[in-house]
Amino acid sequence: MKIAIIGAGWAGMAAAVEATQAGHQAIVFEAAHAIGGRARAVNSTLPDGTPVTLDNGQHILIGAYSETLRLLRRVGVPQDKALLRQPMTLQFPDGLGLRFPAWPAPLDALAGILSARGWGVADKWSLLRVATGWQVRGFQCAASLSVSQLCQGLSRRVMTELIEPLCVSALNTPAERASAQVFLRVMQDSLFGAPGGSNLLLPRLDLSALFPDAAARWLTEQGGQLRLATRVDSVLQLGAQWQVQGEVFDAVIFATSASEAVRALENITQEAPDSLANNIYDWTRITRALQFEAISTVYAWGPGAALPQPMLTLRSHTDPIRPAPAQFAFDRGQLGGPRGLLAFVVSASKGDREALQAQVLVQAEQQLGLRLHAVQTIVEKRATFACTPGLQRPTQHIAPGLMVCGDYVAGPYPATLEGAVRSAMTAVQAITLTQHAPA
């Protein structure tokens, strides 16, 4: 089959690789002059004038991202060089917090909880008791439950030092508003799933080099095509086929952002039959109802600045007198970048760029003892959908041969790279099944 894939972010490139691997001809259309979407490299300059490559936002992968890791292997990315793998670590600058040993799951989680520094017996017992309950119930709960409600039996210390950082990093939604159902799925796969599932995988390459660039090379070597600076505003249905940019395809996969997919699909309705127009109307109505959260990454530099380990958890709070918005700090000097460059991540961020940047620099001095100079602050205002309880996410299937993929469509995962990759695989598999279905 000849498949048009619209969008060359992680979802689009994953769909192209999966389609090519399945024996289809994949042609990717990308409106921008570069690939990668929201997870891409950004060129910048350090205060001393040195050019530096940043990311559009600092990302963390985990060992449970099985499909993302499989895809990296397929396109030839050497994972030992591309990713720094370490046991789950949520430690603060003072050394308190959680660090798992390199043991099989779930023994690593059990040992990490029992050895958590700064936690009393009551803290550890509350987590063991509640987590055992999750496991007994098969990691299932009511769809209406929030993470805060799910964790009512936990001590305040466990909530602030474990659950809240995990929740906001995985779902990019504060615990009081986040879906307990989705959170439990992430906990099941990471803490109680396959060996190494809880491991943190910190990129040593910029996000473009980590996957999109390698996927583009692999795709062209396999005979696929990547057409940059080509905006697709609409597609036209031609019976069982589709016309894109004057070219006929057997199937189309939209792999753009939610807003771009809505815009392009609404253009289709102008010449679409009623059945297709109604399907698109229903899909765009659900997609428009999604709320979005921002993620900000503050890059800062100081001569010789370094952290005791590649990633630290920070004590984040919204005290109006002395706000500390960042939840995590990364030492880019230990992750393939220049020495002295740090990245501070503010998930579910609020406020304007300048105020946020100033607050993070103060937080770095207070919690890390580092006086840093701002390099660049990147605010992705619509970084992820708000992963709230009972949320209805748009389906992937709109019509035979017309699919959508991305981290926001219906699926078990929140808005993560793994969610984007899995949705791409599902879209291609659905199209492939129609090819083999009996007439």
Can you give a write-up of this model?
This protein is α+β, with helices and mostly antiparallel strands. The chain folds into 3 domains: 2-37 and 207-290 and 392-436, FAD/NAD(P)-binding domain (3-Layer(bba) Sandwich), CATH 3.50.50.60; 41-69 and 77-83 and 201-205 and 292-385; 88-194, no CATH class. It has 14 helices and 21 strands. α1 (10-21) runs parallel beside α10 and α2 (66-74) crosses α14 (417-436). The longest helix is centred in the C-terminal third of the chain and has 20 residues, at 417-436. It is globular, with a radius of gyration of 22 Å.
Residue windows where pLDDT falls under 50 for at least 5 positions: none
CATH topology of the largest domain: FAD/NAD(P)-binding domain
Query: What is the CATH top level name of the largest domain?
Result: Alpha Beta
Radius of gyration: 22 Å
Can you count the helices?
Answer: 14
Spatial arrangement of strands, main beta sheet: 10-2-1-14-21-20
Number of domains: 3
**Could you say which overall geometry the principal axes of the C-alpha atoms support?**
globular
CATH superfamily of the largest domain: FAD/NAD(P)-binding domain
Measured distance between first and last alpha carbons: 16 Å
Which percent band covers the strand fraction?
15-25%
Structural class: alpha+beta
Q: What's the total count of β strands?
A: 21
CATH-scheme architecture of the largest domain: 3-Layer(bba) Sandwich
Helix content percent band: 25-40%
Biggest sheet statistics: 6 strands, mixed
Q: Averaging pLDDT over every residue, what do you get?
A: 94
